[in-house]
Each structure stands twice: as structure tokens, then as C-alpha cells.
Amino acid sequence: MSRAFIVVFFAAVLSLSGMEARASNYVLDSIATFTYPSAGSLGGSDCWGWKAPDGKLYAIMGVRDGVAFVNVSNRAAVQMVDGPKNNCSAYWRDIKTYQHYAYVTSECIGTNQGLMIIDMQYLPDSVHYVKSINVHPSGDVTSHNLSIDTVNGYAYLEGRNQINMSIHVWSLADPENPVHVHSFGNADGIHDVLATDDTIYVADGWAPTVSIYNMAVKTSPQLIGQITIPSAGYVHNVWPTDDRNYMVTTEETQGKTIKIWDIQDLNNIQLVGQYIGNSNVAHNVHCWGNLVYTSHYAAGCEIHDISNPAAPVSVAKFDTWPTTTGFDGCWGTFPFADSGYVYASNMNGKFYILQLRDTTVVADADSDGVPNSTDNCRFTANPGQEDLDGDLVGDVCDNCVSIPNPLQEDSDLNGIGDACDQTCGDVDQSNTVTVSDVVYLINFIFAGGPAPSPLSVGDVNCDSQVTVSDVVYIINFIFAGGSVPCALCP
Known about the structure:
mainly beta, 2 helices, globular, 34% strand, Type 1 dockerin domain, Methylamine Dehydrogenase, Chain H
């Protein structure tokens, strides 16, 4: 079981109309964490999700080496599909789904460059890479973002900074063989686009505008609304609410707020609310119901209630990065899965399966007499609130009781938190089994040196004791190609 990084509190957030306090009854729990290779703090990018016809949930993340698929239903990594990773300052990948296909764009070139098409119908066993196509018939292969109008079957890809080349429209009538329909846009290019039922919302980057187009006639886009953001940063992302009465925008610039706009009259779009998290810079937002989910860089994944758009309220958060400022941490979120699941992707290759729960009805979910708001283990009874390692996760649900592991990270999903999950034979805790471990064991056995911690990590032959036979076992493993230390240890 994992911990929730949410303080249930009466919150007030900056808005144009003033301050409003309101009770929050949401908790955001960490369910599982996956770690993918990165280049320092770079390697992870966007994430998305897909629900199979049988109801199973899958998550998809852009990672350094390509595209990773995760079975959410059983918390298992499924497969990686190689992607391009050359000639790009970061491993940007954007992902969307249509029918049983995932479509992926990147600013990198190399293996499988272009618009990647991946068939997911064979899950949970595997996914099949179909092919990649150019993002434009002229030969362009790079694109920073894409969006798919799943109602009408059209993909909209970000293009390049050239007149009539900044947005590319592709028909997905034949999902494995998209057909280019039209390209349009201004010479300054765009950054992001959101497509829904023949309407697209475009974040125009440095323009600095947000533009709304009627795309009923794909070869003749009609600009039906546009707003210039005052004192703007880089207009990065836009997402409308489900009823299309409001849209929320980000600017990916230090000190620039997340803004809420009333778009009920497209000829008179009005700014009605704004807020910003403690990282002071936001990446992307997604709207679902009355909630806005933000990938907020160093502030992690944050969720705000905009039932009153003029006074947004922070209701839940999950911190994915140890510092509070800068362009590190949470890059993407996906809130549209069943059962309150929220996916979050970190730039350093971490991928999180989270779950948002509304505790309005059940104030003490485990009936242990401790309210959810202060319970350090909400779903397993622990009336004494014991917490041996002081990491704010109760011992009864802590996957590493003796060593602080506040994020409950368990990269290999073996039920043992990474902080406690040592390699068998690594008695000196160097993360590898070497001759220094041999020396450590000899010193322990024959000279009264410190014991391995835990002792079982030295039991490499799994005979339930640490003796000279374990020393011989490790020597044979290191120098003679012998069997690896016992998988059951520690």
C-alpha cells in the first residue's frame, strides 16, 4: 500500500476576484511507480492512457528510448517500442490514441522517426509497431505535439514555423494508413493543439494568442475565436472544460499564472480566474468535470476545483520532485482513466500510477478511529499510527518500514520499497556485488566486523545462515562465472 501526498485543508488560491476558502475531501494516493532510463534529469516526457474493449486499463509514456506501455490493471510493465532519440535537446514525445492504435510524435530523429503508429489490440501480451510516416508529405518528420478528434477521426499535428505549415490535418479513416488532408497556420508556428468534435483550440506560443477554429470543413478552417493574453509568457497549452463554457491555459514561463477564460461568447472571451502552484511555472493542464489536472514541473501533479472559475481551489497534489522550483519534475498527466486513476510522468524517467479518491462520504475509510485527513495509512486500520522510520507512511502499509521511503517507490514491483530492496550479496550497499563484498563478509565472519544489514543480504546461497560458504559462492560468481546470488535473498 502507498501513501497519499495530499493535505486535506481549507485552501484559498489567488484569483482575480479575491479569495475563497472551501473544504477539500480528495486524497491522491500513489499506487505504483516505474523507473525508465534517463539522461540525468531528462528522459521522460508526456503520458496518455487507453482502455481496452475488455475494460483493462493501460498507460503509455514517452521515455528516453521510445514509448513504454504499462498494464495498469496488474501494475506491470508490458513493452517498450523504440523511438527516435537523436538531434533533440530533450526526448520529447507526445502520445494520443484512436480506436486500438497509439500515435506518437517526437522532435527527435532516428529509429522509427515521424508519426509512429502502434497497434495495441494484442495487449496484455504485447503491442505491435505498425510503421512511421512523415508528419507532412514534404518529408518533415518532427512534431512536438498532436491531438486527435476521436469523434470524427482526424489527427492534428504541430508543424513548423512557416505560413500554412504550422498545423497538419490527417484523416484516420484507415488508422494504419493516415491520409494528409490539409495544412494551415501562421508563419510564427504554434505550440499545442486540442481537437474535439470538429473544433480545435490552439496555443500559439510566442504570438501570444489562443485561437479557436471550426474544422467542419477540413480544407477551410474558420477562426471563430481568439484572445491575446496580456503580458504573456510562452502560450504553451490550452484545454476546454467538458461543457466548453471555459478553457484553461498555461504559459510555461516563470511567474505566469494558469488562466481560466469564459468562452461562452467567442466574440468576447473574458479572463475570470487564475492561480499558480509553488513551483511558479506550469507545464500542461487537462480538464475533466470540475477539476483541472496540472503537470506542474517541480510542484508535481496538482489538482484544482474550478466549480467557481473565479476562485479555483487546490484539492489534491502529489509531489514528484524533491525541490520546489525549476523546470524539473512532472511533465505530463492523464486524468481520464476509470476508478480515479491518474497517470503522471516525470522528466527523469519516473512514471506514477496515482488514484484520486473522494472521501466525502467515508471520512474514516479503514474504520480505525483516525479520520482520513490525518490517517497515515487510510485504507488499512492502524489506530496507533505507528511510523518507525518517520516518513509519514504508517508501518502497516509502508513497503519499507525501517528506512524512509515517502514516495513508496518500488521499481521492480516486488512489494519491497526501493530504499529497502538491496541486491543479494551487496553487503556493503554499493549497489553492485564486487570483491569489496567478499572482504566485508570475511571481516564479519572472521574478524568480528559489522554484520550485513539486513543479515539475510549476505546469505547468497539461501541456506538461512551467513558462513564461509557464502564467501566462496560470491568469489565463484565474480571470478569464475558461477551462479548469481540467490534470488530469494534478502
